[in-house]
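Fold this complex.
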Amino acid sequence: MKTQLMKAMMTSISEVVETMFFLPAEQEKESTVLETGLLDQAEADVASAALAFTGDISGRLVMMVPGNLLSEMTENFMGESDEKLTRELKYGTLKELLNMVCGNALRKLDSGHGFDLGIPEIVDGEMVSSELPAVVIDVADAKIAAVLDIQN
Amino acid sequence: MVYSILIVDDSLPMRSVIKKALGAAGYGGSEILEAQNGQEALEMMRHNWIDVVLTDYNMPVMNGLDFILKAKKEELFSDIPFIVVSTEGNEDRISQFMESGAAGYVTKPFTAESIRDVMVPILGEGEDEDTIDESDDDLDF
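Structure:
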């Protein structure tokens, strides 16, 4: 089921980014957090958010998005120019991205019993284990990573 | 006709996107009210005329399901249609919403077209209907 979830995450990121953020997304590969290269970027330049889910499979999804791309995504999402966007709005956008990706992916796996989603929260990306599996998507010449931390 | 629409979602960016989608769906001339959770929305409904409510499910303080159930128990709100706009899209959850009295359901991610598809049977066309290109299946917002 973990493999199916990874594939569902990859498809969901593309669907959400294209539908809600009007940006082209190209599926790249499955990887690990370390191999994404996002940990190498300046720590302030990558925003991360986490969302817990429970159901037939339970765990946590973490999304990592470079700051420049998050600004562009927030501009597209809210229809406002970057000067008007506070860090809170950008973090709010990241949490919505995570919420939609996670919900969309879990729906693709749904056996009918459903999944319960928690409330997304901003986390320190450096605290995410570098060995965890991740899917990487190319979006507007940058990379987004979705990191899966499965509990069962 | 100008409608009064209440958007209930704890995310400010998402409320902003729903507003844009309503505009693209032909409801741009409506009065839009916003609340961050079910409890705040109930309070707002007591003081404002509301034609339709668009609510998220997963919110702190009071989630969308509890909000609809509480609202439907109050005679004052019993005729107000509720549309759920949520990432929660499995059949069990949708059944729960519809049994609680929701009039429609839109799954995130959504398009302006999917918002319009659920709004029109409930409210009728928006006042900006002349600006909508019916041949466009994927309305930009």
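The first helix of chain B runs from residue 12 to 27.
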